[in-house]
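Table 4 source record.
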Amino acid sequence: MEFPVGIDRNMRMNGRARKSPAVYSVMLQGTRIMIDFDNVRQFEVHALETSSREPKFLVGYKEKYFEVSAAVAEFITLLKECSSVEEVTARFSEKRGKPYSEAEVMGVVGKCIAPILKSEHSKPRRPLIFKAELIPAQKIGVLSGVLKYLFKPAVACILLAIIIALEALFFAGASHSFRIGQLDLYVILGVILLYISSSGFHELGHAAACKYYGVGHGGIGFGLYMNFPVFYTDVSGVWRLPRKQRVVVNMAGTYFQLIFLIPLLVIYLNTYSVVLKFFIYTVNLNFLITLNPFFKFDGYWIMSDLLGVPNLRQRTNELFSYWFKRLRGKAVLRKPFLLTMKKTEKMFMAVYSSVVNVFFGYYFFYIMPVFLYRFFQAFPSQASAAVLDFAAGKMPPFPLLQGILTQLLFLGFTIYAIYRMLVPSIKKYIRSRSRSGSVNADVTTR
């Protein structure tokens, strides 16, 4: 049986103590393992549609989801039907066709079930370095319940036809030249306010798609992903859906943002407002970032479901880690997902894995260092020019102030992102060194 994978282990029993009619505790190789049958009955097991040739299942527990093998899913189903370790042992032995001891069964529990139960008290891996919920799920649920009808095929086709027509008219227009003089403070503030509003509507689209397909969703919040400020919606429940429906949920944000543009395009084509012109361009350019398949924006999740690979980013490195361990003669507990995939998806996954690792290497080892170099090279002179203007009693040029503010914000996000990424790695290394030291001490004592 494989370990459960969060979506994104010689056994020796030293003793057993019954804590309550439904809770059992054992010591297994110096580690206490507990099983609460009441909690196990809260597990929800669903088929998980992936591109793996091996059947995969989804286990839901207290709003967390885990990918498990068919054997683990079968074992969880068995546990949910039992109320004691003795009963589990008897039925497990019967199913497997050979006798198992309670120690061996509890070893399976420690390997496959305990990580799920412990997840209730552990901090989940978060793609967002920082996050704060702005609108709770209950309030969003009212709006998503109304807007879910926008996903009816007939309605969606009509709206998309209108969007395509209006976008064609906008880009076919002749008045699309840009002048720096048009970008005054009021234009920028107007574009920012409209962009924030459209981003909120974008997230509402994901929630409405969830409601349309009958799965729950979380609230809308604001967070920091790497060094990007982002809005987000928790739609983890979509893992219970087929891949095609998951793709629709992933694309729903862009779909809603295009709907948001419909009245603004109509107004622009009649008024040629400068604010609307810059906003429409901004949103269309933003789609290139949103649909980027490398960062964990909508494009990443679309790619994940098209390829049928949960935890896509993690699995782009899985094969390299597998080969590295094999070369070093180390035991490999799980076959890389790539090696279990169907032929067509496997080919695209291999290409994606290569490209994404090159991309992140380029981003972290070229883009960010170049930004930092240019910042420390140019920023002092820009700041000095702004200070001299203030000292002379005049307002610095707006483009200068805009450049200074933009660079400072990006620098702040970059430093914070690096700090939040490095600190967990350092703590993990210290813990591993500490565990290594304690094991050596125990061996020496013996």
